[in-house]
Amino acid sequence: MMETERLVLPPPDPLDLPLRAVELGCTGRWELLNVPGAPESTLPHGLPPCAPDLQQEAEQLFLSSPAWLPLHGVEHSARKWQRKMDPWSLLATLGAPVPSDLQAQRHPTTGQILGYKEVLLENTNLSATTSLSLRRPPGPISQSLWGNPTQYPFWPGGMDEPTITDLSTREEAEEEIDFEKDLLTVPPGFKKGVDFAPKDHQAPAPGLLSLSRLLEPLDLGGGDEDESEAVGQPRGPRGDTVSASPCSAPLARASSLEDLVLKEASTAVAPPEPSKPLPQEQWAVPVDVTSPVGDFYRLIPQPAFQWAFEPDVFQKQAILHLERHDSVFVAAHTSAGKTVVAEYAIALAQKHMTRTIYTSPIKALSNQKFRDFRNTFGDVGLLTGDVQLHPEASCLIMTTEILRSMLYSGSDVIRDLEWVIFDEVHYINDAERGVVWEEVLIMLPDHVSIILLSATVPNALEFADWIGRLKRRQIYVISTVARPVPLEHYLFTGNSPKTQGELFLLLDSRGAFHTKGYYAAVEAKKERMSKHAQTFGAKQPTHQGGPAQDRGVYLSLLASLRTRAQLPVVVFIFSRGRCDEQASGLTSLDLTTSSEKSEIHLFLQRCLARLRGSDRQLPQVLHMSELLHRGLGVHHSGILPILKEIVEMLFSRGLVKVLFATETFAMGVNMPARTVVFDSMRKHDGSTFRDLLPGEYVQMAGRAGRRGLDPTGTVILLCKGRVPEMADLHRMMMGKPSQLQSQFRLTYTMILNLLRVDALRVEDMMKRSFSEFPSRKDSKAHEQALAELTKRLEALEEPDMTGQLVDLPEYYSWGEELTETRSLIQRRIMDSVNGLKSLSAGRVVVVKSQEHHNALGVILQVSSNSTSRVFTTLVLCEKPVSEDPQERGPASPDVPYPDDLVGFKLFLPEGPCDHTVAKLQAGDVAAITTKVLRVNGEKILEDFSRRQQPKFKKDPPSAPVTTAVQELLRLAQAYPAGPSTLDPVNDLQLKDVSVVEGGLRARKLEELIRGAQCVHSPRFPAQYLKLRERMQIQKEMERLRFLLSDQSLLLLPEYHQRVEVLRTLGYVDEAGTVKLAGRVACAMSSHELLLTELMFDNALSALRPEEIAALLSGLVCQSPGDPGDQLPSTLKQGVECVQAVAKRIGEVQVACGLNQTVEEFVGELNFGLVEVVYEWARGMPFSELAGLSGTPEGLVVRCIQRLAEMCRSLRGAARLVGEPVLGAKMETAATLLRRDIVFAASLYTQ
Fold first, then answer.
1. Residue 1032 needs a FRET pair 20 to 30 A away by CA distance; which of 109, 212, 238, 926 works?
2. Contact criterion met (CB below 8 Å) for 698 and 692
3. What is its EC number (predicted)?
4. Residue 506, H or E segment
């Protein structure tokens, strides 16, 4: 090997180094510059790369990848750098947005710049947690869909959004703080503090300037006039001089520092204010749908969406208004085609590149609409409690509760929203969930247009008027005249193959009621009952019959319908158990062909293939499969969701011939049939058995008749027992549907969500509810009347109350109080049993109403209606001089003296005496006398009625009438101050405290009135009339102010009680500010107080995820039941803990005045499925859960699904409060619940 020879190079010369020295300026500073030299390699691409040296490897290992650092002994690998002190960096801060701008002021004609003015910018420094404006920047992308409980909602439409001027101006209701007199002197926990009492003389500190002396010579009025005035003289708000000594008047304080700045004198001409449009009083506009729309395609040459059929007139009218961006309320008959309006709105939003939200009352309807709209438009998303599909789509389908949550949480989806479609609006009558619809309608921003779809309701205009006033926009009401497919209603009395033809027409397609058909059904039923009595004795068959009789009825009915080609049929039965019984009793029927059986079999295989093996062998799945192969189906809440969807899809294909369903099948599900059958016309509504309401009957009967397939729809009512009464049938079939009624109620979630936003008030939400609409719709009229009364009051002359008239105001108030006290006592008498007994025929009473003033009357007849009893009374009156009421002249105002106030001063006719018969209410009876007359009421009423006819008008009254009138006149003349009356305590035995105290107060007032001095003055009558007129105007003004104020709200007392509950539990402070517990409660979907208390008590943190899920099932379970004795000890203790917390909350509610008792509040919890949920969370198959509880499978699935939603709410709340352990357990619990058949994907979303 050759040895490498080492070359020794000479040391380099300093001039040969690649460095250059450069002098910087004249300061003597030098800088070395590196001069790149020639490459040291002769290779064309330089030297090849070499391995990194030790320094590079260390930097890469320890500095670039800190994950490689050891967990222990970090001090050997750490390096500290000496910190450089830079205190000036602490003064650096991020620049705030500019709050103002300069605006040029120009001449309105020439455009010449006259000056500049600084204006405040309204949209600076806004964020989702501080502002309700749509101009605020969007929140984080992760929160754009659902929002966040800490974010503010957008400003509700119809409410005036406050401007900068409004926010800077102090509200009238705000308490003014005096910083000189109202400051606290002793801090909390201290024994003594600072004395702020002014001293006699306080010498200013040397060298300090008084701020008041500096500001004193400044003219804060903004003008440069009156410069010659004294500098130290204070000025008024308009710049005028106020004469006041400097010592007596304190220095006027400014409300803010900005007010202390000198104001520039503006020389620009103020532009004219734009005239405000007059408010539209007719907010609900009915649209004529009887005449055709001939110019439809001329007005819309390129519609956003087209159908294969020609739209109806009402659909065209709705489309025309949608093109104008109007809000519409479509109240149409069932199956009339309301969905066409929704489809056009979706297409219009896609054309405008905006978004549409379609809301439905139930999740099943949301899934169906998702499938239908996705097949039509494609870009459709679905948001339900457990499903989130395509949330970025232009059309989102969701339940109303989810939309409410998005509105309260300030979701950025609302920004791009153009339409909100409310389907099945009549669901607002639901007592539990109807409030959600009102909340959503109130909270929607102004840029969102509203589409309301509903069945026909009688008060559609009233409801639309409420929404129009709420949003300050016109709502166009479009209603259909008749059903597209008319209905025929029948009674069926058959029960065997021999009687299957007993079908009697009761109501034809033109709406005519056939009494002949009714009596024919009655006769057929009677004939069969008589034959039954001859064969089996006089014992009558039961009203409903047993299973065997029901089976005979349905076999004969279905044979008749099959012969007449009136299948498919929907049979409505108002019991889940009886639906299953009737379907199971007809397994001998086979209504499908072999090809239909094959199609059903293949469809079932495809749908059930997504289930695990044991779930496919569930008894309900096997039983339903057998029924479906025979053309039978069952649909109610106890059926598994996937089976209900299978039944719906097969029914829509015409493969299910007979469907037994509860009334939930008629809620919005577009599944028309040829025939609808009612098993009964009575149902149990949760409290009692009652007849079907007309709206319920119309909703279910509307499923009969398929548009385009059937000329008429058939509705059949089974008469298993006796035929119902004709009046009941007439009312149910031809009565008006139920009106839309407000179900608005206060919830803790609503209160907390509004309290956390300073600009929104709960009182405003209550004012704008549908329940307050009747009293609030006349607000403008009340304001106008109040202004007019104010002017009248200012124009009135002040009464002279000097001398003897000094007690005139007290005299007037005593008289008013005496009248009110007597009225209170009289109301108590009329409400008592003894008081009503005394008001029998012949009793003499004192009548005081609008037509009569302290006139004697005798009762002739008393109505039997206990709720609003009417007393027909013969009353004395003055004989009119003229027949024209306008020519009689006004009655002269009377001045009450003590005898008039203390006594009754009965009416005495000045001229000829006359009489009349009046129908009096309880409030028209001023007093019940001790006198009783013997009268013949029937003859008096008969004679009076005869003389009211023009032919007998001049006939003299009969003897009974004359005798009664003369006796009443004699009593009035004998007792001018009124005859003796029945004492409420001694005679009527009323022991009410208010009656006793009222009697004592009345006697005291009578003594005060008798001792008044003002009645002795000759000026008393004139001055009393002046005072009474003034007091009456003031009383009316107080009434109007009350109606316009928050005090008139019906739910205001309950609101104060619920706020007191929140304050007691620590959710809000004394000032109404929402605390941490309140913000956590806002994140809960239901049972917000109970869940928050359990979280803050750490009652759930020590439990395992499956145990937490089992306990929380008691909050969402809908079927009552006992948890049983087989629970583990941990679960038993947990149940007792939850009940104890609920009891504590209930006791707080009772202590704060709420009507709900502790037992009722605790009774809302149902722990019947605790063991079922516990075993399910532990992994038990669903097939083994059936033996643990007798609850139907569908209700078990619904409970677990709602429980998973609650676990997600608790997970978010735990993250908000900083409980990662509980949040992780909630996530695990939700994961354990979400498996197998319970959370099988909906067939409509596949």
1. 926
2. no
3. 3.6.4.13
4. strand 503-507
